[in-house]
Inverse folding.
């Protein structure tokens, strides 16, 4: 547990350093350009998104689950041709009771760390390829799995100057590296297509459903497929750009005890170089 606490403290420190980075050179970018940069998962941009997902009718007792993902993104310039974009996802989960008399539980889930190698000056399609690791940092057995996981990560998108559309997809799959600890082995896939239309004032329309597959589950319990979308807007706090977003998704395909609706609220602090 000491190692977990030490690792979490290091990540929190990195996030605080990121928040302290002053916005400078990109302060003159238009609101539309800032919105489009925020929609690029491998953009050369330090940012700290806080994404809150409220999942309704979760579990056998139709409770409400809440997952706050704190997702600091820190790019590393390798050289003039390549960047490494790192993204850490730290979930703070409130899990409802699943049995009579069981109370809800709130705590840290399993942290995921992803790194993409991406061209610094992409031509045509923008892409990134790398790996994603899942770490057993959960503070309660109900909030995660105690086996480490690892797998590939890939993203491709289209973003052009003067074009209001930004679209693409992110794909990854994580396999557990062991099976003898709490939660057992896992094999989980994720596909996240995204489509955004950006207006000149920094407002945008978005759909970004997170499709997941539990490859170890029965066919009828394997897929979660949401449909929906929402709206976003770039604001400024002084010179600091802030990307805000509100969206809702309905799970047209889902396991029996999974949520049927999700409300997603995001606030992203952006620190352009």
């Amino acid at each position: 547990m000491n190692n977990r606490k030490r690792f979490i403290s290091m990540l929190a420190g990195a996030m605080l350093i990121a928040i302290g980075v002053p916005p400078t050179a990109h302060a003159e970018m238009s609101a539309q350009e800032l919105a489009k940069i925020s929609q690029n998962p491998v953009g050369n941009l330090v940012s700290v998104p806080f994404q809150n997902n409220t999942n309704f009718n979760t579990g056998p007792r139709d409770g409400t689950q809440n997952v706050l993902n704190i997702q600091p993104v820190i790019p590393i310039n390798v050289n003039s041709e390549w960047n490494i974009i790192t993204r850490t996802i730290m979930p703070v989960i409130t899990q409802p009771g699943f049995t009579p008399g069981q109370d809800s539980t709130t705590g840290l889930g399993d942290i995921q760390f992803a790194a993409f190698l991406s061209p610094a000056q992409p031509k045509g399609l923008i892409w990134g390829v790398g790996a994603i690791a899942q770490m057993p940092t959960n503070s309660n057995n109900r909030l995660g799995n105690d086996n480490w996981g690892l797998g590939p990560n890939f993203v491709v998108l289209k973003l052009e100057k003067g074009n209001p559309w930004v679209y693409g997809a992110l794909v990854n799959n994580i396999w557990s590296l062991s099976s003898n600890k709490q939660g057992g082995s896992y094999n989980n896939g994720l596909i996240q297509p995204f489509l955004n239309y950006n207006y000149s004032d920094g407002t945008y329309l978005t759909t970004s459903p997170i499709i997941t597959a539990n490859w170890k589950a029965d066919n009828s319990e394997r897929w979660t497929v949401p449909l929906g979308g929402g709206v976003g807007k770039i604001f400024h706090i002084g010179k600091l750009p802030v990307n805000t977003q509100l969206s809702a998704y309905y799970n047209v395909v889902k396991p029996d005890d999974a949520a049927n609706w999700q409300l997603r609220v995001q606030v992203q602090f952006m620190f352009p170089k």
Observations:
- The helical segments are 2-19, 31-38.
- The CA atoms of residues 108 and 139 lie 5 Å apart.
